[in-house]
Amino acid sequence: MTNVTKSRVNTNLDKILEDMLKEVTKKTTNPEDKVSLTDKMKVIDRVLKWEAIKAKLNDGDWGAGFNE
Fold first, then answer.
1. Ramachandran assignment for 28, one of left (phi > 0), alpha (psi -120 to 50 degrees), beta (any other)
2. Is 6 in a helix, a strand, or coil?
3. Minimal CA–CA distance to 35: which of 49, 45, 20, 48?
4. For residue 4, what are the β-bridge partners?
């Protein structure tokens, strides 16, 4: 089973994205590890998109118009 809280947010996904962001930032400081700017931005984009989704899930009014 997945680890889903009452607010329907998968905490495992939070951890995975956090680890991905840490890995990309760590490789930025080490010149031997080459990570392209495109790959870095993909990770950052995923993290930002996930934060936007979490904000919408926690907003009780979001999507209320669909029930009318």
1. alpha
2. coil
3. 20
4. 10
3-class secondary structure, 64? helix
* List of long-range contacts for 45-49, beta carbons under 8 Å, 24+ apart: 46/17, 46/20, 47/17, 47/20, 47/21
pLDDT tens for each residue of 15-63: 888 898 888 887 766 667 777 888 888 988 999 998 888 888 777 666 6
Report d(CA 62, CA 14) in Å as an integer.
21
Per the listing, tokens 């495992």 go with 12
Q: Which helix (H) or strand (E) holds 12?
A: helix 11-29
Tokens 């899930």 sit on residue: 57
For the record, the structure tokens of 10 come out as 């998968």
pTM metric for this prediction: 0.61
